[in-house]
């Protein structure tokens, strides 16, 4: 054992198991740990090593002491556990067993602020810590995920050779694994990835529902349309899986018709939404996508209100407008908001994350990989704002009328379009030279004496309106 370098993986859920298999396939020696819970989690690591050929020679443990003792230093321990207190518990259990210079890595979907705190407290103890956003679901973990790394740079330099081996490769054969910054930078970027993912999924769901509203469009034709879009610049992993999902049937009926219409979430979309709001970076599409999921969860209320407020359609003869341009524009705006959150993290958290690198590691392995990301990877080399990019300008100039038509159609048919409308509202507002905010400023000053600046003011001194002191 002394001549071998072992990686240890904690947590044999789907992601932990598949990442372990990926390491093993790359010829990296691996030790597996899963806790022992009598009756529900017994011999889990051993069972996994027996089940998968590539894990047959892995060491397996359910005693943390023995697991840590078996690893050659500096130890490299990857924690693959659900975000939250479970991660803190395992870190606290590990600390007395570790030596200085050992490297702990959290590969779960942890909140970046938790990662920041853990980085600080572990570095005080001489233990190096990395928070890695891992995207690609179970297939990505096995075949090559996108890895968004943050934390101790020296630790990354020690383990990068192995991470690069297990990560996805882009079209040029370059690994989709990058160090993005200190502390929680990796988990921050993964959180934004998930926010973009929420809106990408919601946009497809909205387009699907709009297509379905047309009497001449059935599942099969929507599937074909999505497939044809896959042969264009609209191509994406999520659109591709959506087309495939539509092909499944049960007893000649589309399989998804039997799925309950309540979308769940594990929290990253809510963190992304809140984080954008807190740093002052508009992220209305991911927020709308999150709220669409939350609203969908109120199934019994929706059923009740659907009877109390029957849907009134104002013009049932309107024909289905062209949806593709609207879909494309909304996706560009969604990505603009997401990448802006990353760019603005420089002011908020001093990370200065390179957008070209982010687009590169999102170009393969992850859930939001797409032709659009490929395009952005090239375009961020010259400009750091998607709003400044010519393809978006062309799309808008050619598709604005259709975009309006889609919204008019949906209003007339009573179809909710949280993300499409959100994109439209954001776009209209961000391209409006004079907004309605001067009235907001006056209101704030009227009731709270908060002050405002005048249009032609020199300097930034706040002044008060003529209503001051009169109420
Ligand atoms: C990924 C995914 C993955 C998972 C999220 C989202 O990049 O592989 O984002 O991390 O799907 O946990 O889950 P929810 O939709 O349940 O929030």
- Physical arrangement of strands within the biggest beta sheet: 3-2-1-4-5-6-7-8
Q: Using DSSP, what is the number of strands? A: 10
Largest sheet data: 8 strands, mixed
Counting structural domains, the number is: 2
User: Rough shape?
Assistant: globular
**Percent of residues in beta strands?**
5-15%
- Can you identify the CATH class of the largest domain? Mainly Alpha
Helical content band = 40-55%
| Unique ligands | 6-phosphogluconic acid
CATH overall fold name of the largest domain:
N-(1-d-carboxylethyl)-l-norvaline Dehydrogenase, domain 2
Number of helices: 19
CATH architecture of the largest domain: Orthogonal Bundle
Query: Uncertain spans, ≥5 residues at pLDDT below 50?
Result: none
* Span between termini: 80 Å
Question: Helix/strand-derived class?
Answer: alpha/beta
Order of helices and strands: EHEHEHEHEHEHEHEHHHEEHHHHHHHHH
Output mean pLDDT.
Answer: 96
Please identify which CATH superfamily of the largest domain we are dealing with.
N-(1-d-carboxylethyl)-l-norvaline Dehydrogenase, domain 2
